[in-house]
Design brief:
heterodimer; A: mainly beta; 11 strands; 0% helix; B: mainly beta; five-stranded antiparallel beta sheet
Chain lengths: 116, 110
Amino acid sequence: GAVVSQHPSWVICKSGTSVKIECRSLDFQATTMFWYRQFPKQSLMLMATSNEGSKATYEQGVEKDKFLINHASLTLSTLTVTSAHPEDSSFYICSARDGRGERGYTFGSGTRLTVV
Amino acid sequence: EDQVTQSPEALRLQEGESSSLNCSYTVSGLRGLFWYRQDPGKGPEFLFTLYSAGEEKEKERLKATLTKKESFLHITAPKPEDSATYLCAVQGRSARQLTFGSGTQLTVLP
């Protein structure tokens, strides 16, 4: 079945530094990947749609300059949180669609970001 | 705008006590309704996709049903390992992304 690998699974960084999160589709190609943010006991909120070879599409209210998305290949999308602050601490999850079956969207295992 | 509402927010069951979770939705042309299971600190795990009213799917102790306005996830004789948050999501006809509900946190007590 479709597998999406996300790394790292957790990261702690100092305020003001940048953090990169990787999302890879392991056994299928994904022209589109999705990045979500999830706060404790809340649902997934779509941040942006990552498009291979073109600019990402950001949801309303998401700062493009803070959350940099790069989708340079059909199997890799990255999310970089720039100049991180404590309020950026959250659970970030990526997703990709495998068009081969009805499974729909496969999710990565998530990245717990803590900014101190 | 697509919307998904799940109820209840939390549900505690005794082992073996069957129940149902509800997912009400409004969408401009349903392409698919998805059920996922999410364990703490993990990404959502796919359970079912339903496409049209009247459709039903089963997997072990879980059964998902769909009407034009809502979906139910029936849990028969649950076990403690069924404890998780269950998420419902829809994809509208013109959308690439999913719209998620807030989830139902299920706890099954031994």
